[in-house]
Design brief:
Layout (H helix, E strand, L loop, with lengths): L19 H15 L4 E7 L3 H9 L3 E6 L2 E7 L1
Antiparallel strand pairs: 1-3, 2-3
Length: about 80
């Protein structure tokens, strides 16, 4: 499986579904832009619908699914 990328984050189970993931990723993308990183790579498991929604809501474009891992790119 291919995992990793420029940005990674985890929300503790008791705090999920409260919008923190979407907000956190937005803030991390803003920091990447400040550092003049024009596009970032994120990966998540294919069956992780919540992470996929967070990435897609922040402009993530699915480029590949390989061995159950989704590769997304986001322009900052």
């Amino acid at each position: 499986m291919i995992h990793g990328g420029h940005i990674g984050f985890v929300i503790r189970p008791s705090e999920r579904s409260k919008g923190y993931g979407k907000l956190l990723l937005k803030e991390l993308l803003d920091k990447a832009k400040e550092k003049q990183i024009s596009e970032v790579l994120l990966t998540c498991d294919e069956d992780n619908a919540a992470s996929r929604r967070i990435i897609e809501s922040n402009g993530g474009r699915l480029k590949d699914i390989h061995d159950g891992s989704c590769k997304y790119w986001i322009m900052t």
